[in-house]
Design brief:
Strands 1, 2, 3, 4, 5, 6, 7 and 8 form an 8-stranded mixed sheet that branches. The mean pLDDT is 91. The protein has a single domain, classed as Alpha-Beta Plaits, CATH 3.30.70. The chain is of the alpha+beta class.
C-alpha cells in the first residue's frame, strides 16, 4: 500500500561527491560500481542511525530527510558523514570529497509514481532550496541553522549572499 501524501516539515539534504565525474573516468566500471555500493551503504547507515531516511540515490548523489524533531541529529549525521566519507574516498585513492547541503522547510512527502511502483519522495520548494545552496563541505540554509541547538550552532559561521552557514572547521572558507 502506498504511503499517503502530506505536507510535513523536514531537514532536507543533498549529499554528493566533488570531482566524481573526473575520477570515474580513471577507473574501471567495476571499481565505480563497488565504490558506489559501499558509499550507498555508508550513507544509508549514517542517515538511518540518526533516524533519517534516504529518499533516493542517483549516481554519487543522495537526497535524504530528517524529521522536524531530528534536525540536530541530522546535521550531526551530515557532519560525521563528511569526515567518514572523505576518509573512505582518500583510502581508496579517489580525489573525491563529500558535500552536504541542507535546508529546513515544509515539503510534500509520500508516495509518487506510476501505479504499482510508487516510491516515497519529497517534493517542493524546500527541496529545491537545498539543492541550490552553494558551497563546499557542509552547508546549511538560514532556516536549517535557526533550527539548531546552541551547541551545534557554534560549529558554523555565516557565509555571504545568499546567506548560508558553513562548517567552521572547513579550512577553505
Amino acid at each position: 500500500m502506498a504511503e499517503p501524501r502530506a505536507e510535513s516539515p523536514f531537514l532536507t539534504a543533498f549529499v554528493d561527491l566533488t570531482r566524481f565525474g573526473s575520477q570515474s573516468q580513471r577507473v574501471s566500471d567495476g571499481e565505480i560500481a563497488d565504490t558506489l555500493d559501499q558509499y550507498y551503504r555508508h550513507v544509508s547507515a549514517a542517515v538511518e542511525d540518526a533516524r533519517g531516511r534516504v529518499v533516493k540515490f542517483i549516481g554519487d548523489a543522495a537526497l535524504v530527510v530528517f524529521p522536524e524533531d531530528g534536525v540536530d541529529r541530522g546535521v550531526e549525521a551530515l557532519l560525521g558523514l563528511k569526515v567518514s566519507t572523505d576518509r573512505f574516498m582518500a583510502g581508496r585513492g579517489w580525489d573525491c570529497r563529500l558535500t552536504a547541503k541542507a535546508h529546513y522547510g515544509v515539503v510534500v512527502a509520500g508516495a509518487f509514481g506510476p501505479p504499482g511502483t510508487e516510491r516515497f519522495d519529497v517534493i517542493g520548494k524546500a527541496v529545491n532550496t537545498a539543492a541550490m545552496l552553494d558551497g563546499a563541505g557542509v552547508i546549511l540554509s538560514v532556516a536549517a541553522f535557526r533550527k539548531l541547538g546552541p551547541d551545534l550552532r557554534r560549529r558554523f559561521k555565516k557565509h555571504t549572499p545568499p546567506v548560508t552557514y558553513i562548517r567552521s572547521e572547513d579550512p577553505h572558507r
